[in-house]
Structure formats: C-alpha cells, structure tokens
Amino acid sequence: MTKQNVVVSDANSPINMAITAAVLKSAGRKPPTVPGNYIGKSKKKLLKNLEIGTGPRISTWIDSMRASSPTHMKSAASFSANDEEHGSWILNHPSALNMFEQITNASKGKQMVMFLDYDGTLSPIVDDPDRAFMSDAMRAAVRDVARYFPTAIVSGRCRDNVYNFVKLAELYYAGSHGMDIKGPAKCEKYNKDNQAVLFQPASEFLPMIEEVYKILVEKTKSIPGARVENHKFCASVHYRCVEEQRWSALAELVGSVLKDYPKLRLTQGRKVLEIRPTIKWDKGKALEFLLESLGFANCKNVLPVYIGDDRTDEDAFKVLRDRGQGFGILVSKLPKDTNASYSLQEPSEVKDFLLRLVEWKRLSLRRSSKV
Ligand SMILES: O=P(O)(O)OC[C@H]1O[C@H](O[C@H]2O[C@H](CO)[C@@H](O)[C@H](O)[C@H]2O)[C@H](O)[C@@H](O)[C@@H]1O
Predict the structure, then answer these.
(1) Which UniProt key words apply to this protein (predicted)?
(2) Which of 66, 150, 322, 369 has the most neighbouring CB atoms within 10 Å?
(3) What one-character-per-residue DSSP string does 20-66 give?
(4) Residue 144's pLDDT band (cuts 50, 70, 90)
(5) How far separated are the first and last CA of the chain, in Å rounded?
(6) Nearest CA to ligand 1 atom 14
(7) What's the pLDDT score for residue 17?
C-alpha cells in the first residue's frame, strides 16, 4: 500500500476530491486551488498524475479514488501503515483532552471564546440530515460552557435549521457557513452596547440559491439516495446514500447545473457537495466577525477555541493559526491534513472536553472567591 492511501477522512478523502473534480469538469471550470499546507505531498503528486478536472480521465480518477477510499482498505499491511501514520499524526495533533492543562494555562488572564461546529462535532454523523440530533447531555454541556464563555455555533446548515437542533437561545449562531450571523437577543454580558448582532453578507444570492436548489431537486430525482438541502445562502447535495457507482453521474449533473451560475462555487464536506456564493466569506471570516462583535478585535486578552470536524472548518483553523491566537481542535478518528492544533476523536470526546472546561472554570472561580 502506498502512503497516499493512508490519510483518509470523509471530508477531504481522495474520493471526495475526485467528486469535486468531476463536478468542476462538467461545469467547464478548473479544480479548486488547494492550499499548500492542506494536502500532503504524496496526495499532491497523485492529483498531478491524475490531472483532476483538466484531463480526459475523470473515470480513471474516480476508479483510482475508489481504490483508496477507506472502505476499500482492508489488508493487514494497510492497517499497520495506518497505525504508523496515525501515531505520527497524533504527535502533531495531540488529544485536546490530554493537552487540557496546556490549553487552560494558555487561557490565564484571557477570555476564552468557544466556537462549535454542529454536524460531526456536537452530533454524530447519520444518514438522514434531518435526524442529526445532539444528545441532551451534549446540549447541557454546551449550555454550561456558554455560562462561562461566549459561545457560537458555526454551521453549514442554515441558521434556523441548526438552531432547531441546538435550541439554546443564549448562543451566537453563524449559519450557512458563516453567511448568516445572529447574536442572542439580549447579551449585555459580552456585548456592552447590547446591540443585536446580525450580519448577512450574501443576501443578494438568496434568489439564486433558491433557483439552483429547485433545479437540483428536480434533476437529482433520477439518482436514488441523492438529497438536496436549501440552506438559504448556500445549498447542499448529499451523496452519502447514493450508490458509489452513481457518484460520478451525480457529480456531473451538479456540474452541468453550476455551468450556468458562474457566481456560485463548490466546496466539499462529508459526503456532501456544498454550493456557495463566490464571495470571500467563510467560517474563518465569521469567527473574526464574531470576535470583533464581542469587542475582541485586535485584542491580546482573548483565547478563541474552535472545534470542528469538516473541511469547511479549516478556514477557521487557519485564521487562528495565522493570528497565532487560540486553538483549533479537529474532530477526527483518522489522520487528516489540518490547520488545527489538537484533536478529539468523536462528539462524545467533545462533550468530555466541554465538561472539563466547565469544571475547571467553576473550580478556578471558587478558588479566586476564597482569596
Ligand atoms: O458545518 P456543519 O454544521 O458541520 O454542517 C455541514 C453539513 O452538515 C450536514 O451534513 C453532514 O451531516 C449529515 C448528518 O449527520 C450527514 O448525513 C452528511 O453526510 C454530512 O455531510 C448538513 O446536512 C449539510 O447541509 C451541512 O452543510
């Protein structure tokens, strides 16, 4: 087994990249430029060899990518290579639970601000996006965290949709990949002016997304298992429940629709194609906007912590890395190229981490009240 087969994850797995390449090819567009530090050297070579999006061999691409998809990697050799890769990855991205003290030490004299992605972070990944419920225990943990730290949910879902899952009025919400931001109704605690935070940088795209959504719903009827969601300022095309043989057909179909919408772009998530406006706005920009709204622009006394599992969360991890401030925590069981500093394996570990933060904060408040 070659090294390129080792780094696997839903979000930036080779098969997912192949799907994106196929969509872009049918839309007559070039594949996205992948940031240098985002993708391993071996994978870069693989992309080059297969000429994604530009060459005539999309089918070769899809076949090759299938061969390196996690479900096809079963030999003992693959597992030991995986173990080795995982070992070195975890050294570079240690568990946030094991690094808890370092994280809390770094927050001394600073206000910690929490940013939480939803799917795959607060709720487990399931086949039906309408049933991606978070547990009551997770909700209680998030509620407690928000008592001590300003907390925002940053999601690819539209704001109302993610709110209906989280159901906590005291939080900030950034839906549609950060293109729809709203603060809690009353938040004197952190927002001194107590002005309602509301920001929608892509409002002009509302009718276009609605139009594309309708077309996609109609066209994807021919592909069993395909599912399209309208997230107001963006749309999602799911292929988690589509037979693997039909992924390329779906990709081509999405590409053929996008051809008529040069102002829309495509990104990818976990077995989902995300259709978004070409504006320069993402989860990273939303994080910066929220820090500013909370009064922490150009402030050294703040420690933002962003927890997310998906490729779209990388924009926020990168902002933190570039600012040299706070920590990104990637939720993943598998090694993955990332700008995050730490890792957690799954939502249950996210819950444990949040509960430890609450416990630590309570103890330190108790201690300081005794002094
Ligand atoms: O930014 P997020 O909150 O992580 O949202 C990203 C996408 O999440 C949802 O899809 C993902 O979760 C589904 C439920 O577990 C799963 O079926 C799907 O395969 C995943 O991609 C949501 O449905 C998408 O619209 C979001 O963009």
Answers:
(1) Hydrolase
(2) 150
(3) HHHHHHHTT-PPPPPPGGGS-HHHHHHHHHHTTTTSS-HHHHHHHHH
(4) very high
(5) 60
(6) 129
(7) 62
Residue 77 Cα to ligand 1 middle (Å): 32
282 counts as catalytic: no
Catalytic residue chosen out of the listed positions 117, 119, 282, 310 = 117
Judge contact between 257 and 212, C-beta under 8 A: yes
Ligand 1 near 157 CB (within 6 A): yes
Distance CA 91, CA 84 (A): 11
Phi, psi dihedrals of residue 85, rounded to the nearest 5°:
-60, -40
Position 64 scores a pLDDT of 28
b (16+ CB within 10 A) / e for 70-90 = beebeeeebeebbeebeeebe
Pick the range with the lowest mean pLDDT from 63-72, 103-112, 244-253, 280-289.
63-72
And the tokens for 191? 């927002």
- Residue spans of alpha helices (H) in the chain: 14-26, 41-50, 58-67, 76-92, 100-106, 136-148, 159-166, 206-219, 247-258, 283-293, 314-323, 347-370
List the residue whose alpha carbon is closest to atom 26 of ligand 1: 156
